[in-house]
Design a protein that fits this description.
Strand content: 15-25%
CATH architecture: 3-Layer(aba) Sandwich
Number of helices: 5
CATH class: Alpha Beta
Strand order of the largest sheet: 3-2-1-4-5
Number of domains: 1
Shape: globular
Structural class: alpha/beta
Order of helices and strands: EHHEHEHEHE
Oligomer: single chain
Radius of gyration: 16 Å
Helix content: 40-55%
Length: 148
């Protein structure tokens, strides 16, 4: 099996970071690219808001989250991925599982490495991880996380 591109979806939580040692190990072993993916969840579909809240407010909130994610992804790359041959950061807006599945195709990932649950997870296997595992066209390595 040849691995040239590894997709690492992260929600920037401590739980998601538990997959990082697997990502770096595989990348070093196969000299593979690492594609970090962060998805800003689409919030406009939640319906009515109280008070004055239009689409521009939603766009501003998503832009703020996107900037925060860019900064944190840059820190991860600088602090943890120096030994990896190439790392590329991607930020998308939408449903996390759908965006991850799209990125698998667009980046021609050979494997996905992700934590079993992210920051919202309360059970052993999160809904995003489950959807990715069930619908991924490539192998998905799921990393169990410590329950806190």
């Amino acid at each position: 099996m040849e691995i040239k591109r590894i997709l690492w979806p992260t929600d920037l939580s401590k739980k998601a970071a538990e997959a990082l040692p697997y990502v770096t190990s595989l990348s070093e072993k196969f000299q593979a690219e690492i594609h970090l993916v962060y998805v800003v969840e689409e919030i406009g579909h939640f319906g009515a808001w109280y008070g004055e809240f239009d689409r521009s407010h939603i766009d501003q909130m998503q832009e703020m989250e996107k900037k925060m994610a860019e900064e944190q992804l840059n820190q991860i790359c600088e602090n943890h991925l120096e030994g990896c041959p190439l790392y590329i950061r991607h930020i998308a807006i939408g449903d996390p599982a759908s965006e991850i599945l799209k990125r698998i195709e667009s980046e021609k990932a050979d494997v996905v490495v992700m934590a079993c649950q992210g920051r919202k997870g309360r059970f052993g296997f999160g809904s995003v991880a489950e959807k990715v595992v069930k619908h991924s066209p490539v192998a998905v390595l799921t990393v169990p996380v410590k329950q806190s």
